[in-house]
Amino acid sequence: MMKRFKVWIYREGEPPLFHNGPLKDIYAMEGQFIDEMELNNNPFRARHPDEAHVFFLPFTVTGVVQYVYEPINSDEEYSRDRLQLLVMDYINIVASKYLYWNRSSGTDHFMVSCHDWAPEVSEANPELFKHLIRVLCNANTSEGFKPNIDISVPEIYIPFGELSPPNLSNGPSNRPILAFFTGSAHGYIRKVLLNYWKDKDSEVQVHTHLPKNVNYTKMMGQSKFCLCPSGFEMASPREVEAIYAGCVPVIISDNYTLPFNDVLNWSQFSVQIPVSKIPEIKTIFVAKEAQLHVVTLILVVGLVLLYRYHVLC
Known about the structure:
The chain is an alpha/beta fold.
């Protein structure tokens, strides 16, 4: 399948709004995907649209926000109309130039974005976008994410001017912290978590800030369970950070479709807790400690397979 599957990248459009995207920060998935797809030696890249199984619309929502919207000086300037019109104009251009969009009504076309505004691209003309595959980090079913059509991808934070953080993880038998979270009170879920657990338990360590001499990555590597509550938006880079640290990710959210959940069985390597159970998280973690060695082994095997897949592809 990997040798046969082909993607056509429409060539229309110019950077920085097309064929470009952020390679750092929390929206990096968007730019990294565009960059990888447009490599000349990409084995998935079709050389002619007739070879393609799917068609990629290479616009960058992050780029549109940066270069079309910013600086934003009033509430009115937050209107998504310019973003929506730009994408609709682009679709009209490729639909008038090629037969592929009209042939399938966009069923075999897709976009990729991790920006918070991305789900709203399709709101201005639901009929036009009815069949478009949206590959999103913000996979919130309460905001129109369609699990039977759309694809959820992980949000990955890549810091500016730095290499990835070193792996400071301890083994599963050498993790003195039962559960860990540090973050601001963004959104109602985090407010509930902080209200119940902030600075109240030495085993369930929940903070808004860490002291300057305490390393965030090291804390994750010393923890058995890493809390990943949704903030203002559904997605968080904490799931990936937890897996990298060998810490069991604890998903606390409502209406979140987890990344690649059609192929990944998240119940095997994570804990999913509804918001209503936040007061009971310590009891839940203590009951699951006995399974920790097995879950950590699954995380390690998953990382090895992911690395091998990335290298071989």
